[in-house]
Structures are given as C-alpha cells and as structure tokens.
Amino acid sequence: MRRFRLYPNKEQEIFFARCFGCVRFVYNKMLAEKQRYYKETGKNLRVTPAGYKKEYPWLKEVDSLALANAQLHLESAYRNFFRDPKTGFPRFKSKHGAKASYTTNVVNGNIRLEGGRIRLPKAGRVKIRVHRGIGEEWILKSVTVSREATGKYYAALLYERERVENQAREHSFEKVLGIDFAMHGMAVFSDGTEAGYPMYYRNTEKKLAREQRKLSRCKKGSRNYQKQRRKVALVHEKIRNQRKDFHHKLSHKLTAEQDVIVTENLNMKGMSRALHFGKSTMDNGYGSFLSMLEYKLERKGKSFVKIDRYYPSSKRCSCCGRIKEDLTLSDRIYRCSCGNRMDRDLNAAINIREEGKRILGMA
Question: Disulfide-capable partner of 180 in 19, 79, 349, 362 (CB 3.0 to 4.6 Å)?
Fold first, then answer.
C-alpha cells in the first residue's frame, strides 16, 4: 500500500464531502436495519446499498463502488465481532467525526495515475504528490480517499504484486536478535543496544496541553473553534508522523542486519491499563513497530518469531537458567546467586532470543 497526499480543487472537495456523507449514511442505515431485523426475527438480514437509491436518489451522485465497499466493511465488522467479541459490536459512524474516508475499486482502468494526477470515478483528475516510486510489476486494486482532522486529503493506493519476492529467497538463521519491550526507549536488544525512542508525545505534551486549553475556551462551532481544532490536530499529526518515521527507519535497519527476530506476544492495551502507564506505553507504539518488522522480514524471506507472553523472560537468569520468583518491577538490575548482574531488560532480551532459537530448533 502507498499513501500519497491529494490536492483537490473546491469542486472536488465538495464531491469528496458528499461521498463521505453518503458512505456514512448507507453504513448507518444498513446497521440500523440489521439490528432491527435481528431483534424481531433472530436472523441476519442481508441488505445492499442499491435498495436505498430509489428512496434516496441523491445516492446516485456518488461513486457506487464506494457504497458497495461500505457494505463490505459492515459485513467485515460483523464477522470480526462474532470471531472475537473483544473487538466490539459494530457502531454507528458519527457525522461530526474528525476523519472521513471512502474506498473505491479499479474496474476496467477507471482509476489510473497520469502526469502528477490520479483519475478517480466521478471526481475527475485530482492532483497528487507521488513521493515514492511504484514498480511496474505492481497492479493497482483499490484506492481509499480520506480527509484528516487537519483538513488534508490523502489517497491510500492498494497494490498487488505479480510475483512474491520471498519465495525465491532463502536465508540462513545465523543472526538472531531478541527484543524486549521497555517503557522508556521502547525496546532493548539482546546484543546490548537499545532502540532509543525519543518519546515524541511526552516531549510535546506541554505544547499540546497549551493548544487544547485554548480550544476549550473557544465557542464550539465558531470559526475560531475550527481554527484552533486544526492546530491541535496538527500537533497530533506531527507526533504521529515522527513516531512512524522512527519505526520505519529502525525496522528497516534491523531487517537488513538480522535473519531472525524474536519478540514476546504482549497485550499492549492490557499493559497500559493494568500498570497505569497508558501514555508511556502508547507513546512507544510498540505494537505498530512489531507489525512493520513482521511484514518487512516476511518480504525479505526472513523469520519473525513470537514467544508466549507468559514465558518468564524477566525472571529467568540468562546465565544459569535459575528463575527469580521475588523479582519486582522496581528491580531494574537483575542479580543472580550465580554472579550474573546485568540490566533487567537486557537479561530478558537474551532469554527471548534463546527461547526463539529453541522454537526454531537451533538450540
């Protein structure tokens, strides 16, 4: 997937707003009817956007594929809920949400890039900034147009490769790296180095609080309120972009240097709630970083291993294997009766690496 900035004109902005509204309307309408039908009959109702166009003729003004994708997204939300109720039941989309989007598909070449512009159904040729190259072997499948809280427009282009690189490559398991999560700095590696994440949110927290205080003093819905809301959104966007940039660069570096990377299968949301370290945990974006590592390693034909979250990586001595049951979170230095004395997170990272080797049959 490639995400590029869009620069629509006024007419195109109006069309996008109409698409966002119609997609939200159809999604909510289908969800309400499915809920009502299930309460009355106990059965699932299958509805399509085409059934609403006679009653609401203005739905014909937007891309029909965008409405069809709204139906697919709703069905996917239902499947996710019944597969794992923790994901939550599908909810209605708010009209006043900061972010809006719609997805359309490529059919008979109706979407294509041409000379710094992208041709979209019913929107015409929209100016786009393609800052990354796109290989000739990539086939465009769909485009998601979105508007951020800052008012910026983006197009996420989903591609499919004609050939898969990792099928033609074989790598040895000579270089294995263990990674342990750290509250400050994001991660510690088994080779003794650290990720050194700069904690972008924490560093910008005072500025963000100042902008949010100004927003709270503005009359809701006024022009000054909209201006200040955009300033707050810009601060959040900068933090998000800084974090993503750091994750991409570090994951690219580790993927190039290592053959196997081993981590723990942690529940980051549960950790942030149970330990009351929500801001620090979420600031790291550790889960997003691991997702980048996983797909980049897979692309290069390398291995990404997750060990069980209940494996005693922190309590086990990396030298003798003895488990220290009385270890607490306040103990930052691991001391063992065998004479081993090292940083707690480094000790855990080494244990994670060795457990990964055992799983792969290398130990």
Answer: 349
Here the contacts of 334-342 (C-beta below 8 Å, separation 24 or greater) are: 342/318
Spatial contact of 49 and 67, defined as CB atoms under 8 Å apart:
yes
Copy the structure tokens of residue 165.
Answer: 């690189």
Let me know if 6 is exposed, middle or buried by CB neighbors in 10 A (0-12, 13-18, 19+): buried
How many whole angstroms from its chain centre is CA 193? 26
Q: What is the pLDDT of residues 192-228, one digit of tens each?
A: 999 999 999 999 999 999 999 999 999 988 999 999 9
Residue 78's closest CA among 89, 92, 91? 89
| Measured distance CA(15)–CA(9) in Å, rounded | 10
pLDDT tens for 223-244 read: 999 999 999 999 999 999 999 9
How open is the CA angle 73-79-80, to the nearest 5 degrees?
A: 85
**Strand 260-264 with 303-307, pairing:** parallel
DSSP state of 219: P
Sequence-distant (≥ 6) Cβ neighbours of residue 117 within 8 angstroms: 125, 126, 127, 128
10 Å CB burial of residue 325 (0-12, 13-18, 19+) is exposed
Residue 291 has a pLDDT of 93
Whether the CB-CB separation of 304 and 177 falls below 8 Å is answered with no
Contact 174, 205 (CB under 8 A): no
Give the rounded percent of residues in the chain with a pLDDT score beyond 90.
Answer: 52
The DSSP string of 77-136 is: HHHHHHH-GGG----PPPTT-S-EEEEEE--TT-SEEETTEEEETTTEEEEEE--S---T
Does 273 score more than 70 pLDDT? Answer: no
Q: What is residue 11's predicted lDDT score, i.e. its pLDDT?
A: 95
Q: Compute the distance between CA of residue 132 and CA of residue 60 in angstroms, rounded to an integer.
A: 35
Structure tokens of 50? 């085409």
Largest Cα separation within the chain, whole Å, is: 79
State the amino acid at position 189 in one-letter form.
F
Q: Which two tokens stand for residue 195?
A: 């990720």
Length of the chain: 363
Which residues are designated catalytic?
180, 264, 345
